[in-house]
Structure formats: C-alpha cells, structure tokens
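Hey team,

Filing this mostly as a record. A colleague (T.K.) asked me to run one chain through the structure pipeline before their review meeting, and I want the input and output archived in the tracker in case anyone asks later how it was produced. No errors, nothing strange. Just documentation.

Input sequence:
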Amino acid sequence: MIDFLLDLIYPPRCIFCEDIIPIEEERAICKNCKNIISFVKGKVCQKCGKLLEDDMSKDVCIDCIKNTQYYDKGLALFVYEGLVRDMIYRFKYGGHKEYAKYLGEFLSEKIRKERLEEKIDLIIPIPIHSNRRKKRGYNQCEELAKVISKKLNIPMNASVLIRKKETKPQSGLSFTQRKNNMKDAFELKNTFDIYHKNILLIDDIYTTGATINSCSKLLKKKNANEVYFLTLSIGRDFD
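Output structure:
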C-alpha cells in the first residue's frame, strides 16, 4: 500500500527515456524502450563479449586478436549507444544513484543466464579515485556490485582494489593513451582476500578494455585464479 501511494505521488519513470511508467507495468524500463534498447545478443566475441557482425568467420573480435587480455571472459548487458549512453551519463554524473537497484537486477539476471554464478567467489567493483567519489557522492560500480552481491549471495569487497592515481577520463583518448592512462593506476590491499579466487569485476562501460585489463593483470599477478568481468555496456567490434 505504501509503495502504491508513493507511485501515485511520485510516478515511476523509465530510466532510459524518463517517461512516466503506468503503475501496472514493469518498473525501470517502459514497453517502448524494452523494444528499442540495444541489448547485447546474437554473435559476440568469446573473450570480451563485444557484439560481432553476424557474417564474421571468427569468434573473437579484432581487439582481442591484436592485444593480450589478462581476464578470462567478459560479458555486457547493453550496447553503448543512444538511450543507454544517456542513461549511464545520468547514473554516473546526474546523481541518479537509485538506478543501481534496477540495473543491478538486470545484471544479476545476465549472470544467471550465462551460468556464471557458480564460478564466482568474489565480486569487486572497479574503483574510482577518492577525489572523484567525493564529487559524485558514490561509485556507480560499487552500487551495482552491492545489488548483485545481495541478489546472488556472492561476497563483494569494495576495498581490496584501490585506484591510487587520479586518471584522465578515458573518453576521447586513443587506445595507446588509454593504456598509458591506466598504467600503475591501481593497487591491491590485503591480497589474501583474492588468493586463488575467481573474481568478477563490475564496471559500467567497456570500450578498449584498458581499465578492465589493467585490473585483471594486477589481480592475476597477485594470485587470483580466474578473472571475469561484467559491464553495463560495451561497444561494437565494427563501430
């Protein structure tokens, strides 16, 4: 009854188009957006999860062929474009921390669907620098990881991986610049927490994979077993 009354006073809105959602319908995403949002489905890279063209003969994207990836496998929920890109911007910079509740549920379902749940020992969100956290008020990746941890009953540790260097935003940088930007950007605290464990990294956007790869390399160096990642969004191999 309380939820019903709150919905009348503050009508729920679609997190993608921001239109009001009728009370009797599903929360977070309206019917129209559910039909037009670019979910990652079909042929994907078997390493990073990036969407491939259907007529490609290879099962691995160009980036993963050309570059060494230290993680074992990656998954993503949406293609990074249009309404998805706008939603993530509001989630990160617009103070819409509440999006994590719904997005975390979507990501949890993705993990179940891919049968990754039983393989994971520990969830680690990609950290942001303390200065950036103070400015935003929260780390969006940590908020997602909290929901996933609760939904799937998998431990989450947001303090074992630290961003010690305040890096430049990755958008607009070349592949080489992104890689150099992430060099020595992270450190691990209490490596016993990851020793011989299978780790799931949580991030919001995967483009070249420089951030995920830097963290994966460090985790493997400090004796993590397998490293997977799950992101809200990812680019296309043919963009």
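Quick notes for T.K.: Strands lie at 73-79, 122-125, 161-163, 186-188, 199-206, 227-234. The two ends are 47 Å apart (CA to CA).
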